[in-house]
Amino acid sequence: MGKILNIGVIGCGTIANSAHIPNYKRLQEEGKVKIKYLCDIILERAEEAVKKWGVGVAVKDYKDVINDPEIDAVSVCTPNKMHRFISIDAMRAGKHVLCEKPIARNYQEALDMQKVQHETGMTLNIGVVNRFNGAVNKIREIIAAGDLGEIYQTNVSFRAHRSIPGLGGDFTTKEIAGGGVLIDWGVHYLDIAMYCLGDPKTKTVSGVAYSKLGVDMKNYVYEGMWAEDKKDLNGTYDVDDYVTGFIRTEGSSITFNGAWAQNIGSGSYSYVQFLGTKAGIHLQYGGDFDVYTTKDGKLYSYRPEYTSGDMFYKEISDFVDCIKTGKKLPSHIDTVIVTAKMMQGIYDSSEQNREIVFED
Ligand SMILES: NC(=O)c1ccc[n+]([C@@H]2O[C@H](COP(=O)([O-])OP(=O)(O)OC[C@H]3O[C@@H](n4cnc5c(N)ncnc54)[C@H](O)[C@@H]3O)[C@@H](O)[C@H]2O)c1
Fold first, then answer.
1. Looking at ligand 1, which atom is closest to the CA of residue 12?
2. Where in the sequence is the domain holding 58, given as residue range(s)?
3. Across-strand partners of 294?
4. What average pLDDT does this structure show over 3-27?
5. Beta carbons of 145 and 179 less than 8 angstroms apart
6. Are residues 115 and 175 in the same domain?
7. Going edge to edge, which strands form the sheet with 57-59?
8. Confidence of residue 1 (pLDDT cuts 50, 70, 90)
């Protein structure tokens, strides 16, 4: 079984309580880790988490976690602005890091983090959790086997009717989040596309990011608002709530449309579609997928079997295992950073009103 790793979770908000703490707790029960600290800059949140989960000690300053020589690894579950600082400090202190998505607010910050990963040799994985999803991995397998033929187009949609998170709070403040729907939701969808396509090299990106429906915060009407507890109508709204664009890769082209809010009504707008010469796939985000092809001169579709499971558990248990084995996971920063570059290109393209060409 090997050494029991000592873990600290930094940031005790939504994702820490819904994914990181419960899954480390499960691993603690399996004898693989010990949760030593739950840390939040708002100490009461850390204390509440300690009480709720019955694990760890509550601390306010993340430096108390990373300066403890007993700590082996941390999860960074703070708003995007802190990802770079905390991950870099942790790696420099000799800790392995699982940092939530997106890597950071922009590509330069992601590069800074990658540089320190290379210097220190500590693990730096990113919370691109779909890389641990059963359906997504089955699609990647089907594509790699050539069952779709040549995939020439990938169509990505991450659109909701009225679903801007925590209006006026961290999520809608560029200085904290780095961007809106593209960086928050798009990161998952573009990552699925890239992972399933075998992480092809990006050649060009062209995009337009709009900040429209949330701007008039006081008159914004919505059907749902996650992170509503962080709403602040006197706060800031300066991020994208709609984004569209086109990416050329060495393989398939990718088109994408994303909306935190759009005037179109509720519907099924969350999917990734792969169009190949032999067959195509429609993946409903977070759900199942179907393969569309022909058989004996007739149209034919089927739903392949795959092993499902809790993707957050797999992400976190694989992180713990890779620390012990030294195996590089598909969520390593070296793989995932391509999406940060892509998203930066999309925002740059929008601002500069032109296509961005990637030279290397
Ligand atoms: N993988 C996913 O599907 C997924 C889902 C939700 C959120 N996320 C990501 O997780 C991160 C956190 O999102 P959330 O929804 O949990 O946010 P949240 O606001 O609910 O929680 C963040 C917590 O971090 C704390 N914090 C802020 N600065 C800190 C610091 N310097 N030291 C310690 N704690 C600090 C805050 O007080 C807060 O409690 C974001 O990067 C987000 O993009 C990922």
1. 39
2. 5-126+312-332
3. 299
4. 98
5. no
6. no
7. 57-59, 33-39, 5-10, 73-76, 96-99, 124-126
8. low
Q: Do 64 and 146 reside in the same domain of the chain?
A: no
Tokens of 109: 């910050």
Query: 83 alpha carbon to ligand 1 midpoint, in Å?
Result: 9
Whether the CB of 78 sits within 6 Å of ligand 1: yes
Sequence length of the chain is: 360
- How far away, in angstroms, is 248 Cα from ligand 1 center? 32
42-75 pLDDT, tens per residue?
Answer: 999 999 999 999 999 999 999 999 999 999 999 9
pLDDT tens per residue across span 147-159: 999 999 999 999 9
Q: Are residues 168 and 190 in the same domain?
A: yes
Q: Ligand 1 centre from 200 Cα, in Å? A: 30
The residues, any chain, with a CB within 8 Å of residue 158's CB and separated by 6 or more, are 181, 185, 186, 188, 189, 256, 257, 258, 259, 269, 270, 285
Percent of the chain with pLDDT over 70: 100
Quote the pTM value: 0.97
Q: Does residue 233 sit in the same domain as residue 105?
A: no
Residue 359 domain-assigned (yes or no): no
Cis bond before residue 165 (omega within 30° of 0): no
CA distances in angstroms from 226 to 49, 64, 163, 166, 173, listed in the order given: 20, 31, 7, 6, 15
| 289, 320: one domain | no
In this prediction, residue 360 carries a pLDDT of: 75
> Where are the strands (E) in 165-314, listed by range?
202-210, 242-249, 253-259, 270-276, 280-284, 289-295, 298-302
Q: How confident is the model at residue 267 (pLDDT cuts 50, 70, 90)?
A: confident
N- to C-terminal Cα distance for the chain? Answer: 43
- Which residue's alpha carbon is nearest to atom 36 within ligand 1? 11
Task: Please say whether the beta carbons of 217 and 167 come within 8 A.
Answer: yes
Could you give the number of structural domains in the chain? 2
